Automatic annotation (TrEMBL):
<keyword id="KW-0472">Membrane</keyword>
<feature type="transmembrane region" description="Helical">
    <location>
        <begin position="398"/>
        <end position="422"/>
    </location>
</feature>
<dbReference type="Pfam" id="PF03140">
    <property type="entry name" value="DUF247"/>
</dbReference>
<keyword id="KW-0812">Transmembrane</keyword>
<keyword id="KW-1133">Transmembrane helix</keyword>
<protein>
    <submittedName>
        <fullName>Uncharacterized protein</fullName>
    </submittedName>
</protein>
<dbReference type="InterPro" id="IPR004158">
    <property type="entry name" value="DUF247_pln"/>
</dbReference>
C-alpha cells in the first residue's frame, strides 16, 4: 500500500489555507447601515471630518490613540448608569451584560464589514459604549442628574465635540443596544427617570444638528438604525417631489442675480424647502458653524454608502455648491440672510461648499424641477438685459424719481430744441 507523499501535502498547504478562508466567509447582510467611509470620499480635502476627535463608539475606531482618554469616562458613566438600578449595581451589570451579549448576531449584521472581535470582546465594548451614551443623554436632559464635578459638562468645549463625534457614520452602534439597556434601567431603576423615551432624549441631545426639529419623517419603512440615521430623518422633506431626475447644473448666485433673479430668505424652517417663482429664489437659512462640514459630510456619506434611493442631503449640497462659486456669492447670500456665517472669513464658507461634493455621485437629484425653472428664467435674454437697469436705476424710490426727472428734463430739452429750430425757419 503506497503511502501519501508528504512533499505533496506541504505543497498544498496554501490551498488548504484558502479553503479555510472561504469556509469562514459570511454572506453580506443587506440590512447593514454602519460602514467605513469610502476612500474616494476620504481623499477629498478634509478626511478628518469622518474621524472622532475625543471618543470612539463601536468597533471601527476602537482604542485608537486619540480617543483613549475617554475610556475612563466611559467606565465612570457605566458605573453611574448601572447604579440607577435596584436592587444593586452588580446584579444590573450581570443582567445588562447578558442582554447585550444576546444581541451579538443582530449587532454584527448592522456593519458592512466583519467585526474582528469575539462575542465577549464585542459585548464588553457595547456595554461600556451603550451605558456611557445613555448616562450622557440622561444628564444632558436634566441638570440635576449631573454630579458635583463632571468634566464633560464643566469643560466648555467637550460637550459640543461629543455631539459632533456621536454623529459620525463610522462612530455608531445599533440603536437596539441602547433600547435594551434603557428599557432594563427604566424597569429596575431606584429613582424615576425623566418622562421621555430614548428617541426623545436623543433628539434633545442632537437638537443643534437637526433640521426639522418638530417632526421626523420616515420613508421606505426602515427602522431607525442609529443616531446618524435619526439625524438624517430630520432632513427628509414632508412631501418629497415625485419628479426627481438627473443632475441639472445652475449658475452661481451672482450670475443669476445678473440675469434678474432675486434672492430671498425662505420662511420655511426646513432646509430643503427651496422655491423659485417669477424670478424670486427663496432659500431657507443655512446656519454654518464649526461642526457643519463634519455633519454634512457624514450625512452625504450615509446616503452614498447605503445607496439610499432618495439623496436629499447630497442634492442640497450639490445645489449650494453650484450657487456658491466665489466669496462674492457668499457675500450676496449672507447679505440676503440666506447664509448665517459663524466661521468668520467668506473664504471658509466658499471652500466648505466647494469641497463637500467632490467624488460624490448623484443618482436622483431632488432639485431637478427647480433647477429647470431657474435655468429657463436665466436663459431668457429679456431678463438679462432688464436686470442691470432694474438693479442700477430702480433699486430705491429716490433713484426712480431721479430717473423720471432726468427723463422729463431730457424730453423738455428736446422739445425746446425742436421748437427753436422751427421758429428759426418760420421767422
Amino acid at each position: 500500500m503506497a503511502g501519501t507523499d508528504p512533499t505533496t501535502d506541504e505543497e498544498n498547504l496554501w490551498l488548504i489555507g484558502i479553503k479555510k478562508e472561504l469556509a469562514d466567509l459570511t454572506a453580506p447582510c443587506p440590512s447593514w447601515s454602519i460602514c467605513k467611509v469610502t476612500s474616494k470620499l476620504r481623499s477629498t480635502n478634509n478626511g478628518d471630518a469622518y474621524n472622532p476627535q475625543i471618543i470612539s463608539i463601536g468597533p471601527l475606531h476602537y482604542r485608537k490613540d486619540n480617543v483613549l482618554d475617554m475610556e475612563e469616562h466611559k467606565k465612570q458613566y457605566t458605573r453611574y448608569f448601572l447604579a440607577r438600578s435596584a436592587p444593586n449595581e452588580d446584579q444590573a451589570l450581570d443582567d445588562c451584560g447578558k442582554l447585550v451579549r444576546s444581541l451579538d448576531s443582530k449587532v454584527r449584521a448592522y456593519y458592512a464589514r466583519p467585526i474582528d472581535f469575539s462575542e465577549d470582546q464585542l459585548a464588553k465594548m457595547l456595554l461600556f459604549d451603550g451605558c456611557f451614551i445613555l448616562e450622557l443623554l440622561l444628564r444632558y436632559s436634566k441638570s440635576e442628574e449631573r454630579k458635583e464635578y463632571d468634566p464633560i459638562f464643566d469643560i466648555p468645549w467637550m460637550l459640543s465635540v461629543l455631539q459632533r463625534d456621536l454623529a459620525l457614520l463610522e462612530n455608531q452602534i445599533p440603536l437596539l443596544v441602547l433600547e435594551i439597556l434603557f428599557t432594563y434601567i427604566a424597569r429596575h431603576t431606584a429613582k424615576s427617570l425623566p418622562p421621555l423615551t430614548l428617541l426623545d432624549l436623543a433628539l434633545y441631545f442632537f437638537r443643534p444638528f437637526l433640521n426639522n426639529k418638530e417632526e421626523i419623517h420616515v420613508y421606505s419603512g426602515r427602522e431607525i438604525s442609529h443616531f446618524l440615521d435619526l439625524i438624517h430623518r430630520s432632513y427628509l422633506p414632508s412631501s418629497p417631489e415625485s419628479d426627481e431626475g438627473s443632475l441639472i447644473l445652475i449658475s452661481c448666485a451672482t450670475e443669476l442675480r445678473g440675469a434678474g433673479i432675486e434672492f430671498q430668505k425662505g420662511t420655511s424652517k426646513h432646509l430643503l424647502d427651496l422655491k423659485f417663482e417669477n424670478g424670486v429664489f427663496e432659500i431657507p437659512e443655512l446656519d454654518v458653524f464649526d461642526s457643519t462640514e463634519s455633519l454634512l459630510r457624514n450625512l452625504i456619506a450615509f446616503e452614498q454608502c447605503l445607496q439610499l434611493e432618495n439623496q436629499f442631503v447630497t442634492s442640497y449640497a450639490v445645489l449650494m455648491d453650484r450657487l456658491v462659486n466665489t466669496t462674492r456669492d457668499v457675500k450676496l447670500l449672507e447679505r440676503k440672510k440666506i447664509i448665517q456665517n459663524n466661521l468668520g472669513a467668506y473664504e471658509d464658507i466658499s471652500n466648505l461648499l466647494n469641497r463637500i461634493c467632490k467624488e460624490v455621485v448623484v443618482r436622483e437629484f431632488y432639485f431637478a424641477k427647480l433647477s429647470k425653472k431657474v435655468n429657463a428664467y436665466y436663459e431668457q435674454t429679456c431678463h438679462q438685459h432688464r436686470a442691470p437697469l432694474k438693479r442700477n436705476y430702480f433699486k430705491n424710490p429716490w433713484t426712480i424719481i431721479s430717473v423720471i426727472a432726468a427723463s422729463v428734463l431730457l424730453s423738455l430739452t428736446i422739445l425746446q430744441t425742436i421748437y427753436s429750430v422751427l421758429s428759426y425757419y418760420h421767422s
